[in-house]
Amino acid sequence: MTTAxxxxxPKGTFGVLDAGEIPVQTADWSNGFTxxxxxxxxxxxxxxxxxxxxxxxxxxxxxxxxxxxAWEEVVEVSVYAPAGRLQVESLAGGPVPGCPLLSPxxxxxxxxxxxxxxxxxxxxxxxxxxVEDYLLLAWPSPAADTTxxxxxxxxxxxxxxxxxxxxxxxxxxxxxxxxxxxRRLLER
Length: 188
Prior knowledge:
Blueprint: E1 5-9, E2 13-18, E3 34-36, E4 41-44, E5 50-58, E6 73-81, E7 86-90, E8 94-95, E9 108-117, E10 133-140, E11 147-150, H1 153-160, H2 176-187
Parallel strand pairs: 5-10
Antiparallel strand pairs: 1-5, 2-4, 2-7, 3-4, 6-9, 6-11, 7-8, 9-10
């Protein structure tokens, strides 16, 4: 397993993104924790702003079905990686150095199991040092429904109210001109 890395979290979210793309308008937040998008996924933290600890590992196949009791929340989602470059990313700082590529099999569907603990410690507050831990496991797998393996009150509330959540919108078409402009802006 890889070493935990510190990830800076702005506004309570970090991502497992494919080539840095964030199609946020397609995010499905129905489980209140891990939101798969048309490519990649966003993960909600307990803190609003500050550092968290993240360990990530790419697997050849699914992990053991049992879940370690140390984790308070565990959710599995399907994540599409059309570019085949799934990486843990801070939404403020980009890819996290030292975190492995989570899509070593290239462009395709992956299953992402997200473990968390400590999300209720400083809920919606600013953290000066990490109080939350995350373990991300990814492996090649056909698309499947979201599975909640362990739920906290946060996830339970989201699931109970998910029928009122808006359905994700399809991603808008991005023109080659818009892509070129985005690349120029990101290079500066």
